[in-house]
Design brief:
By secondary structure, the protein is mainly beta. The chain is 10% helix and 34% strand. The strands form 2 sheets. A 4-stranded antiparallel beta sheet has the order 3-4-5-6, with no helix packed on it. Strands 1-2 form a two-stranded antiparallel sheet.
């Protein structure tokens, strides 16, 4: 069982959350400047890195907030994020 810290509710059981996938890069400012292949890759090919990954998590059975958390994909341990001090 994973324990996930919601920024609003504190530490909760993973069963309260729904994994939203990797936190992706921002949408390109001018998608029309991308090749068709690059645009399809952006839309459909998720990254699958080994190690620390920023992911979206939805506290569906709690406060309903979305949050971005950093998780090590090898150990499933949640890690501090450099931009918010956790």
């Amino acid at each position: 069982m994973l324990l996930i810290t919601c920024p609003h509710c504190g530490e909760r059981n993973e069963s309260e959350f729904i994994h939203g996938g990797p936190a992706r890069m921002r949408r390109p400012l001018d998608p029309s400047a991308l090749s068709d292949e690059a645009w399809v890759d952006y839309l459909t090919v998720p990254s699958n890195p080994l190690g620390a990954v920023d992911e979206k998590w939805w506290h569906a059975r709690g406060c309903g907030a979305w949050t971005v958390l950093r998780r090590d994909t090898m150990t499933h341990q949640f890690l501090p994020r450099s931009d918010d001090g956790r």
